[in-house]
């Protein structure tokens, strides 16, 4: 989970920086500090319920009930579909990430709903009366896609935690530094500590990039070796 969240954070920060260079502003939330803190604290639950848990969970519930390959309690599968969708598919005898891996464990209908919900999530950031600008659509959609994957693989708790992490490192920590009483004797400790924590998250994200690159290179090499062994001998 730390690799997922930190890598996502770096991706979003890089895209935001690139869009700013290209003249595509992302904007920012402009609200009184108490209201902003409240919104950022509650949004991981409310937005995940609205955009991912209910939409993707509904697809899983339909598949686990009407396309089940084994007998079992429908009520349990419905509950699992919204809390732990991969477990619901496993219990229904359907292909799941736990049983067949990521590539084949997510059904095409789930990929479609994941893409649609991510796009709507990104677009909603500029159509709900907020002060975000057009560049936020891209980064929010990417973040929503990763959060949706976290839900499909790990469950509801994971997507909420990823969202909370994302809100904290992109908004709450920065706002907290500005709102903190600089005359307080603990401020010289708080500000550097906040920077150290942010830097550590960036380092973990870089490590995630390295692992992703290594995985793709390793997969290509393995595919090449398998293709070579499958060729008929003369």
Residue-averaged pLDDT, rounded?
A: 81
Q: Considering DSSP H and I runs of 4 or more, what fraction of the residues is helical? A: over 70%
Total number of beta strands: 0
Sheet with most strands? none
The helix-strand sequence is HHHHHHHHHH
Strand content: under 5%
How many helices? The count is: 10
Overall form: globular
Distance between the termini: 49 Å
Instruction: Provide the number of structural domains.
Output: 1
From the alpha-carbon coordinates, what is the Rg to the nearest angstrom? 21 Å
The structural class is mainly alpha
Low-confidence spans: none
Could you provide a short overview of the structure?
This protein has 234 residues and is mostly helical. 78% of the residues lie in helices and 0% in strands. The longest helix is centred in the C-terminal third of the chain and has 44 residues, at 187-230.
């Amino acid at each position: 989970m730390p690799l997922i969240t930190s890598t996502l954070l770096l991706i979003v920060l890089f895209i935001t920086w690139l869009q700013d260079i290209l003249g595509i502003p992302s904007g920012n939330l402009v609200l009184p500090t108490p209201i902003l803190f409240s919104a950022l604290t509650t949004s991981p639950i409310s937005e995940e319920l609205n955009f991912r848990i209910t939409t993707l969970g509904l697809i899983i519930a339909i598949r686990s009930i009407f396309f089940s390959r084994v007998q079992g309690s429908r009520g349990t599968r419905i509950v699992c579909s919204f809390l732990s969708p991969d477990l619901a598919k496993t219990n229904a005898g359907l292909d799941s990430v736990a049983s067949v891996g990521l590539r084949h464990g997510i059904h095409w209908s789930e990929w479609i709903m994941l893409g649609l919900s991510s796009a709507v999530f990104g677009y909603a950031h500029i159509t709900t009366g907020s002060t975000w600008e057009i560049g936020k659509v891209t980064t929010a959609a990417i973040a929503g896609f990763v959060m949706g994957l976290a839900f499909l693989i790990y469950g509801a708790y994971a997507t909420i935690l990823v969202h909370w992490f994302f809100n904290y490192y992109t908004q709450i920590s920065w706002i907290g530094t500005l709102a903190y009483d600089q005359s307080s004797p603990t401020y010289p400790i708080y500000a550097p500590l906040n920077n150290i924590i942010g830097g550590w998250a960036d380092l973990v994200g870089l490590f995630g990039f390295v692992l992703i690159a290594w995985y793709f290179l390793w997969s290509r090499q393995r595919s090449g070796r398998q293709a070579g062994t499958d060729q008929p001998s003369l």
